[in-house]
Design a protein that fits this description.
Shape: globular
Oligomer: single chain
Strand content: 25-35%
Largest sheet: 9 strands, mixed
Number of domains: 2
Number of strands: 13
Structural class: alpha+beta
Distance between the termini: 14 Å
Radius of gyration: 23 Å
Helix content: 25-40%
């Protein structure tokens, strides 16, 4: 079984959870144990060989944080060798930033610290009471920019995952990387919630982008919600929910 499968990952699921779920469905679909058991005349070794669960190759083309939802491209069979091809595609996200607070993880998973006391909260709200003012700040992030990945990321530092070092109380030294932001469009704003559509290159961390935007606005910010809607030309509208994934439906995988 070869091809790609578009999945709408639910919030609180890891990318590994999604792969494991699809792999399990495939194994259950391909198992012929009930049929083999009714056959007679098989030796013990023949029976074990015939009833062995088939190996199913399933992989993803880039992780999506557990707190995020949205489009994942899974690769099956021989397409697992092409995973890198899909992971390098540009991506589109629907983002929600919460201003006036920060998080060590850059998202809602870490402890939230308010950066605005009651004394200056009104001042901040007055300074950010119009979308045009925020738009001017967002424009400074359009194009090629240098971005430092989050400390709580899967990037390896000295052979160890950065998030493991961070959880151990250490500060991983992460080097800036060049990424491209094609579009940042405000879809809704009512302080402290700022909602955006972000079109970015592969390798862009939206958590870092949220933190940098908050710093530039002078309020601090963290990513409070995230949904991936596009990967290259692949759209979330064509993705399946996990409860829709069945063995028969996987027989007609997209092949490109």
């Amino acid at each position: 079984m070869d091809g790609i499968l578009l999945i709408d990952k639910p919030k609180d699921w890891t990318s590994h959870d999604v792969v494991a779920r699809v792999r399990r469905v495939l194994r259950q679909s391909d198992s012929q144990k009930s049929t083999v058991k009714s056959q007679k005349g098989l030796t013990t070794s023949d029976y074990r060989l015939a009833t062995r669960t088939p190996k199913v190759r399933v992989g993803h083309t880039g992780t999506l944080d557990p707190l995020a939802s949205g489009l994942m491209i899974l690769v099956l069979g021989s397409y697992t060798k092409r995973a890198a091809e899909f992971s390098k595609l540009d991506k589109t996200y629907e983002c929600e930033l919460t201003l006036g607070a920060t998080s060590p993880t850059g998202d809602a998973e870490g402890p939230i610290t308010s950066t605005s006391d009651k004394h200056n909260l009104n001042r901040i709200q007055r300074s950010l009471n119009s979308v045009p003012k925020i738009t001017e700040v967002l424009k400074t992030f359009i194009g090629e920019i240098k971005q430092i990945p989050p400390a709580y990321s899967a990037i390896k530092v000295g052979g160890q995952r950065a998030y493991k070092l961070a959880r151990a109380g250490k500060k991983p030294k992460l080097k800036p990387r060049q990424v491209t932001v094609y579009r940042l469009q405000i879809t809704d704003y009512k302080y402290p919630k700022l909602k955006l559509v972000a079109e970015v290159s592969s390798g862009t961390y939206i958590r870092s982008l949220a933190e940098d935007i908050g710093q530039k606005l002078g309020t601090g910010a963290y990513l409070s919600a995230l949904r991936r809607t596009k990967v290259g030309s692949f759209d979330i509208k064509n993705a399946k929910n996990l409860d829709e994934v069945e063995g028969d439906s996987l027989r007609l995988l997209a092949k490109i």
